[in-house]
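Good morning,

Attaching, inline, the backbone tokens for the sequence recovery test we're adding to the shared suite. The designed sequence is right after.
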């Protein structure tokens, strides 16, 4: 209704419209976004995993799937019933949450949730965690790291 030409692809979009539509588009856009936000989001995970199944060998296998991007998405995992051992904020603006997690007494794992500031209390539970797995190389050490997508 407002656009004369539109199109693009997954990573870009373009449009053209008459100048006299410029004042009407923001309200129409807001209305469309509000309707979209009422639809629950769906996240498709690739596998459910126990923390004790996360090994250096698994991360090396995942690295063989790189590079990730459009058409080759990074694998998503879900783990359930996790215990928070530690929770703290990181970053210059304290806007990244670092967690230490365990599951059924398993080995501790570090997790980072970027642009997230809700703290968890030690001993608290996380019912479901959706995440990617990556190597974290810092100060000469290479460790498995969970990159949180959603709790």
């Amino acid at each position: 209704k407002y656009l004369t030409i539109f199109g693009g692809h997954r990573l870009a979009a373009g449009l053209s419209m008459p100048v006299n539509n410029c004042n009407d588009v923001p309200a129409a856009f807001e209305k469309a976004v509000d309707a979209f936000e009422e639809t629950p989001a769906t996240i498709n995970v690739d596998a459910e995993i126990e923390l004790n199944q996360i090994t250096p060998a698994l991360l090396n296998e995942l690295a063989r799937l790189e590079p990730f991007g459009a058409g080759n998405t990074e694998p998503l995992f879900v783990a359930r019933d996790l215990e928070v051992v530690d929770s703290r904020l990181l970053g210059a603006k304290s806007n990244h949450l670092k967690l230490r997690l365990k599951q059924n007494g398993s080995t501790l794992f570090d997790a980072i949730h970027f642009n997230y500031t809700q703290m968890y209390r030690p001993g608290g539970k996380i019912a479901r965690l959706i995440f990617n797995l990556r190597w974290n190389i810092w100060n000469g050490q290479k460790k498995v790291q969970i990159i949180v997508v959603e709790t």
